[in-house]
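Batch manifest, entry 17 of 40.
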Amino acid sequence: MMESAVVQNELFSIIGHTHYPLQQLLEDVDYKHSSAAFLNILFDFITYSSDTDLLSVNQTQFQPVPLKQMQNVVKFDMKLLFFHDPTVKNQTISCSLICSQDVFDIETVEQLSKQFQHLLSQLFVKHSSSIKITSFDLVNQPISKLSFCLENVPKEIQQTIFHRLPNIKNEGPASYAQSHIWFDERIRFDRDKPQVVINNMPFLYRVHSQHTLSTTQLRRALQLILTKHQSLRTSIIFDNETNKLIQRIIDINAHTRKSFTFIENRIIFNFHHVLFDFPSMKIFLHDLNQAYISNQLPINHNTDLRYLDYTLIEQQMPMTSTNLSYDFLNYALTNNIELQHLALAAYYMFLFKLTNGERDICIGMNTHTRYKDELKSIIGLYENLIPLRCQLDRDGSFHELVEYVQEMATNCIKYSYFPLQHILAQHSDCSKPTFLDVSFDFVTIEKKIMIGDSELCSIPLSITINEDEDEDVSKFDFILTIQYDLTINQFSCIINASLDLFNQETINKISQQFHSMLYDLFTSVNDIMKNKSIYEISIMLPNERLLIQSMNNTQVLFPSATCIHHEFIYQVTQHPQKIAVELDEQSLTYTELLYYVQQLSLVLLNKYNVKSGDIICQCVERSLSMVIGILSIIMVGGAYCPLSSQDPSQRLQILVKETRSESGDEFYQQSL
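Output type: structure tokens
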């Protein structure tokens, strides 16, 4: 109530000055921007009287009809409009949230409207007495007590119970937040460079001049905190065998690294963000104070919840906002696309990516051809496999592919009653078409299975070849089955592949790639992906992207080194009589090689006036003379440019001119 009183007083004080023009107010505060930001968000309250606002002409009354505004044009980025009619018997009030489509999409506006309605219902709608905090209690509570989450989201969270997992010892998968920070560090920064400190969280404290701390007692308190909070002694490791990011708790007794360093009158706590957030500091300081005073912390290693337990339970918690099934169904609904056609288009694009850009793809699809009413009540086999050929445009977007597949599949379904054998009989040269090996199936589960008052649920079943071998049988080389359950409004995907062609690891990877592609296409976060060409959409997994990033990171820091001719002179002084260069029966020691190099260097300097940086071309067969020439050019500070004696003379002349070598032409001719 305190906040509403503040708003009320503020409003009354402002209303008293509403006669001031807005332009004049902006000039008084020297507002330099042409469009003030607050002008884009508006609040309006309209009071309407049905008795006085009726239009009457010569005793003929006109009833007002609401006029719907154009959906694509709004005056403001966001506007909340309240509409109140106090004259009716039961006073009514309504509100409308109007948003610009340039800033918000339709789904976001609908979500905001539901959240605002939920916020009002918490304040003003009476609930049953079984609820601990009623709506009128919330009116007097701090506004932070109000929830912005819709009802279905808290229900899922309430159903999730975080508890100690006894079967999990000291290792488990990294949390979603940890994975984000870890991958971000390795993609944005060079792993070979010194430790990246951008995710470090340092906290600096100074001991008050009149206070003292016992370092022994403080060290003991910090040791107790490390014992209690295992996340502070956890390592994040990428497991190359499983291609997963894991967190591993380090045994405190085996932890030999120096954990604490004390500086006079200063305390510095430095945490890595992958294991620590800002609210954790409050917990840390509370436990530090308690451990320092009492020299103990309550710890129960059998029941206390760990961050590792939270991570495992978090990954099993249902998340409505990231439900791929919901996003897939929502995309089909908003774009008026049949689920079967949308799934088929996604399958075509996935095969396009798997086959490295094959644009002419033909697959088989099972159709249930009960095309006559009299057949719909008879048990039997009415299934027919029809070929669906799709010629993909690599530069087209996914939405364009969906439209093409929708038209193509609709036309093919019209002739699905033609038996496949009749079609194949017209092509006698085709004994077994390849499209029979790659198939697509779409199954709709329409309602619950009931026998009397009992409900049955289906269980996935696989066929085993024999009892000794756990090996499944697939009818096709590769088939994608989409199951859509109307009861729970959810779809699932199953990929079956022949183990004669694929091993289990490959099938699992293909399944992960298909899931990753669907996520990129249909989640609201990645709307931009739908407008990309299908060639640009990637099916690489996150760990593969990290691998590519590390492979392409070829930058290497080389230490500063001396020049080649300096190293050559050093070798001459160290090993003057050793063989420096050898070819067939010819050889030169370091001393002999230096002598010839010096002689040629003097020629270049005195006769050809070679200066530092000049380009010197040399056209010599592989020989001792070639080595002498290279070292001589480098010795005088020139840039060595090799020419091949296999090239025609005219080409050699052109190359010499392109190098703009002043002495190269003459030196090249003499070399010949």
